[in-house]
Amino acid sequence: MGEIKENPPKLDLNAKWDACLDLGVRRFVYSSFVGAFSGLLLFRSPVTRWASVAFGAGVGIGSAYTECSYKFDGSPAKFTTTKISDTPASPDEQD
């Protein structure tokens, strides 16, 4: 009879935006805390302490932006780990 064609999975933009917003807020807060902690340990001047907080926040926002751009473009993340089964065996192990 007739073939039933399945529609491709719907791109759920709301879920992607929610995931990216969550990722952005988390990385912003966590890296700001790391910047504040390292500023307290390493610097004495309040200006340099605030600069380390700002640097940490920038690193967090930048990494979240990169990860979200991979999610929206559909390309795999740049730094993915390979599975053990994907790596070819060396000639010594094939025997």
- Helix count, DSSP H or I runs of 4 or more residues: 2
Shape: flat
Instruction: List the uncertain runs.
Output: none
Helical percentage = 55-70%
Question: Topology as H/E string?
Answer: HH
Report the end-to-end length measured between terminal Cα atoms.
Answer: 51 Å
Biggest sheet statistics:
none
Evaluate the radius of gyration: 22 Å
Biased composition (Polar residues): 78-88
Membrane topology: Single-pass membrane protein
Region (Disordered): 76-95
Subcellular location: Mitochondrion inner membrane
Care to describe what's here?
The chain has 95 residues and is an all-alpha fold. Helix 1 (13-42) packs antiparallel against helix 2. It is built from 2 helices and no strands. The longest helix has 30 residues, at 13-42. It has helices at residues 13-42, 46-73. It is 61% helix and 0% strand. The mean pLDDT is 80. The chain has a domain at 32-75.
Task: Describe the structure concisely.
With 95 residues, this protein is mainly alpha-helical.
Outline the secondary-structure elements.
Blueprint: H1 13-42, H2 46-73
Tag the structure with descriptive keywords.
single chain, mainly alpha, 0% strand, flat
